[in-house]
Amino acid sequence: MAADTIKRVSPFLDSGPHTTPGTLAIVALSRDNLIPVYLQDSKGAHDGYAEGVVVNTRYGSFPHSTLLNVPWGSQIRASNVDTGSRGRKRKRPEGDAGDAAGEVNREDAAANAVKQAATASSGFVHILPPTPELWTASLPHRTQVVYTPDYSYVLHRIRARPGTRIIEAGSGSGSFTHASARAVYNGYPRDGSERKGKVFSFEYHETRFEKMKNEILGHGLDGLVQLTHRDVYKDGFLVDGESPEAESIFLDLPAPWQALPHLSRSRPQTAEFAADGEKPWVSPLNPKKSAYICTFSPCIEQVTKTVSAMRRLGWVNIEMVEIANRRLQVFRDRVGLHIPTERGANLTPANVGEAVARLAEIEERFKEHSKASRSGGNSSTPTAAMDVDTNGDVMADANGAPYKIWKEGRLITKGEPEVKTHTSYLVFAVLPREWSAEEEEAAFKRWPCGGEEKVIGSLNKQARREEKIRIHGGKNKDTKKKVEKDVEAESKEAAAEA
Ligand SMILES: C[S@@+](CC[C@H](N)C(=O)[O-])C[C@H]1O[C@@H](n2cnc3c(N)ncnc32)[C@H](O)[C@@H]1O
């Protein structure tokens, strides 16, 4: 295959060893502060920055040139950027009818070559490869989104695995879409006819649909995610009139019960569907497999209506689950007066000995201070030996012996006092696979039952031998020999008994 015809694999599926121009990266300022950035290889100054495209954060400025071609996970130091002409007003030529107030002169700067970034004295970020989890935490919100604790459980329950075809509605901000695309990925289809794992996502809000389309394209997920602009309550889940043949479904819609009739195996017996009774019914579900569904609704009234519709439409094993996600904080409980002022540390005496030693030290200082005052000298309090390492983690105790502060104290795990994370109620159900009279007959032929002459356990020795070899010893030589030996021993035993 020619190099230019090889499909670029999404960085969500394989990010490669290091950052490259044109791909999405996540700039991590802290655990909860992540910025998605499309890395660019600047050819000249950009937006008034001589270093080219720059990401500005509260921890400093980061020209893309410093973020490019580095191993994923690298720590990147901030740069002192040259804002050059940024903010300078352009003097317009006489008679120019443009904005009289002038505008930021960017083009002049762009003409210059990109300037090498100079490292700043402080500030850093980490550069991380995109994953569905990081994308969920950093994506531009257009709607409420499904978060990682919920979607990991949902994907497990609806049996999403490599090769699965999932129906999703609505697409919203694409949080669930990215996670499900990774879950079902088993390669890009070579052409439209090759059957691979795929997400069929439906969204009726035009602007959201357009934004999502661009994102899917930009993230290299086209071919794995098929987006359709559609009101699924009205028009269901077929794509160009064809069935997606899905076996997993996730509905994050205000009224899932209105979409459920479209997910039937045969035409629902309601007035709404009776109207187009002439047309043959095409189900969006895979006829050869049971369908696993999850609906995601914030209110219990929605759950009631959904469950009721599911029962009427033949769904079974209906169950509701709520994910109560609780963050656990793990830290060391450090108590003692020897600890420098630090967040989280408890600066009280750890025991009576430490309290008495501290009182004695204060008493001593007081005495020295009084003595100095009486003699008219300087009251220079003796400075305690510096015990804080500038790196903040290696300390010296009273005897000068080093110790690591992060190893101090008892290890404690604390949960949040209150669980505040109700996102939605998850309703799960299963719609059994289709089963026709022909399939029943074929199954009966393959596994005949009802006409047996003997039970395996009561077969004669020769038949049992053949049966054992057929089951265990057919391919593997060693097993076959062992089975033959066993059967021979059994036959001898039987002969002796006779
Ligand atoms: C809560 S958002 C989905 C968020 C998404 N699950 C995510 O993780 O980012 C619900 C979406 O359903 C869409 N929607 C609502 N009714 C719809 C309908 N009848 N057909 C298609 N989409 C619909 C809305 O426009 C909205 O974008």
Automatic annotation (TrEMBL):
Region annotated Disordered, chain positions: 78-104, 367-389, 458-498
Enzyme class (EC, first level): transferase
Biased composition (Polar residues): 373-383
Signal peptide residue numbers: none
Highest rank taxon of the organism: Eukaryota
tRNA (adenine(58)-N(1))-methyltransferase catalytic subunit TRM61 C-terminal domain sequence ranges: 123-265, 288-430
GO biological process: tRNA methylation
GO cellular component: nucleus; tRNA (m1A) methyltransferase complex
Gene3D superfamilies: 3.10.330.20, Vaccinia Virus protein VP39
Role according to the record: Catalytic subunit of tRNA (adenine-N(1)-)-methyltransferase, which catalyzes the formation of N(1)-methyladenine at position 58 (m1A58) in initiator methionyl-tRNA.
Protein name: tRNA (adenine(58)-N(1))-methyltransferase catalytic subunit TRM61
